[in-house]
Amino acid sequence: MLGPVILAASRSDKMRRFVSAAPGTKQVVDRFIAGESVDQVIPIVQATAAKGLEVTLDVVGEDITTVEQSHAARDAYLELVERLKDLGLGTKAEMSVKLSMFGQALEGGHELALSNVRPVVEAAAAIGTTVTLDAEDHTTLDSMFAIHEELRKDFPQTGCVIQAYLFRTEDDARRLAAAGSRVRIVKGAYKEPAEVAYQDKGEIDKAYVRVLKILMEGDGYPMIGSHDPRLIAITQELARRAGRKLDDYEFQMLYGIRSEEQDRLAAEGHRMRVYTAYGTDWYGYFMRRLAEKPANLLFFARSILTKG
Predict the structure, then answer these.
(1) Which residues are designated catalytic?
(2) Closest CA to 224 of 269, 192, 187
(3) Nearest residue to 184 via CA among 205, 167, 161
(4) Distance CA 183, CA 170 (A)
């Protein structure tokens, strides 16, 4: 299977240099990354909102090594909030953050990440939007959930992400599926050991459905992160059985993937949110997109051969 190999390569500096220098890389990166700066991503947010879709914005760059970099990440999000405020886009755009980018892996990282993310969540709330804490590898999750719980004391709309391929996730879903919660479910895009995660695609899909059922039958607000047509259809059926209206849950898909399906779901009245990443440190995010779907890797390979 190529997925685990690509995920391992996402941590390799040698592969980072190779991929960055490959002649076809920019063409493929531009498919998944909306730009390198706020100025480049804002027109995309406006165009997306004009079509009746919403966005969640991710400033990419989780591989930081200093406290100063964590503060720079915080400031990048605060700049984004200001731009959304100035353009009146607060109700159409939320933000997704990876706590590793806010210093979670550094010494004293739990407290550092909390202190960095809190002003972002506060600023987001002030313009009528919110923040979702992305899930990363399994070793970071207890810290992420603790920060999520702490933030929700003052900002109950703060969301979090759970990953279907982890054995722990059904229990996490039961705990999180409470009134007022916002939970995004994804399959998972990190290289996890067999001791903590399902490895077989079929088993992951079954786990996704089990977790989705827990969320749909709960009192929170499920956010379904998937491009899989079968899982989208299952979502609609589970929502119907649970008596949920179209605005009682939402679909989320990545920028650059299945855009026609995004438009179709929005036209049917579903809430459709586009996960839109931007920034200069795109490598880790890009490699996970390649690992998720073989067609993405083939597209990349063809681009290199064409441009070489």
Answers:
(1) 134, 184
(2) 187
(3) 161
(4) 13
Q: What pTM does this model have?
A: 0.87
pLDDT at 48: 96
Q: How many residues does the chain have?
A: 308
DSSP per-residue string spanning the chain: -HHHHHHHHTT-HHHHHHHHHSTTHHHHHHHHB--SSHHHHHHHHHHHHHTT-EEEEEE------SHHHHHHHHHHHHHHHHHHHHTT-TTTEEEEE-GGGGTTTSTTHHHHHHHHHHHHHHHHHHTT--EEE---SGGGHHHHHHHHHHHHHH-TT-EEEEETTBTTHHHHHHHH-STT-EEEEE---S---TTTB--SHHHHHHHHHHHHHHHHHSSSEEEEE---HHHHHHHHHHHHHTT--GGGSEEEEETTSSHHHHHHHHHTT-EEEEEEEESS--HHHHHHHHHH-HHHHHHHHHHHHHH-
pLDDT value for 263? 96
Q: Residue 25 has what pLDDT?
A: 60
Query: What amino acid occupies position 187?
Result: K
For the chain (308 residues), the mean pLDDT of every run of 10, in chain order, is: 50 55 61 88 95 96 88 97 94 95 96 98 97 97 98 98 98 97 94 95 97 98 96 98 97 93 96 93 68 56 46
Token digits of residue 222: 């499920």
Rg (alpha carbons) of the chain, rounded to whole number:
18
